[in-house]
Structure prediction request, 362 residues.
Amino acid sequence: MYAFRLNQNTLRIGLCWSILCFISIHCAAQPADTVTTKPDSTIRYYKFREHSETRFSLLLGYNYLTYGFAEAGVGYNVISRIGYHGLAMAAYLSSEVKTDNQLIIGPKVGCWMAGGAGGIAMGASFIYYTDFTSASLRARPEIGFGIGPGKLTYGWNIALSNKSFNGIDKHLLSFALMIKLKKIKETNKEHTVIRSADWVAMRKENMPAPIRQDTIFSKSRLVLLGGIGGWGNNLMGEIGIGGYIDEPENSTSSGLVYFSIERFPGTDPVTGVKFGNLMHGTKKFGLCGGAPMIYYTDLSSNSWIIRPTAGIHYKRLFLVYGYNIALSKFRYGAVGYSNVTLLYSIVLKRYKDSYELRNVYE
Prediction:
């Protein structure tokens, strides 16, 4: 009988991802803003709020793959929301401390930006690792998932000095959370907007209309995912759940954030826990891409894998190609290096739609 086992660090990272996904879906499911109709008019006017807050915050984090490093520091972060669009930025000073029997510290300076429909996070940092006998300066670009004050990312430590320094990972997963200590600045604005279709109708009838015509119409959904994929004889099935934001009108992107299980049956079965995201354009048909993280195990070996993906979509149907990059030694076996996945999402729950700032009466 095949048994799927997760170590404690996998559960920690999975818990962090689940928390961020919950925040993401919860933020996307806020009630719709006020809708009004002016007298003698079929044009609907929508009110929504723009909010931004700058904070001085405590940073707490954990970095792990082979070695574990706890992290603490302080920084400034900005969390903003325009309608249903969230954006977060942070700059910080911190220190990493190795949590096993070898003492290594790493003073660190860095920044990141996160948000958008797919919850993509990107950042960079510089860390000066030392064991008080030798030292090494590392640069770390990061990419992954982020929302509000938190992020979960894959990072690559690039040696700028002393490449032979031991006790740190070349590839790793990093979780960070900014906890507010003091509010520095807060901005609140309220706007009145109309849909782009109504704007066009007003112009045709020579009615007074806003100058800017670029309304965003957002649909937030809780979805069930199902898919098949693989490469050659390495075939797998996938099932999961996620949050989907669709913006069909004059926007820049729509996105999906999800948690799923992959299963390669075959003679050498492999199971994977997947934390994924996909972003695509606002047309029904177009390009899409993402960077999911997957924890694979076949009982004899296990590894975290990051899979950069790119492909095409039609509505909520995705066909993507991905390349598996193992963050530690892994016998690819039934998984393979390449993967083509056909993924479809079924709506479980529809949240209220929103209309965001573009056509403005002010």
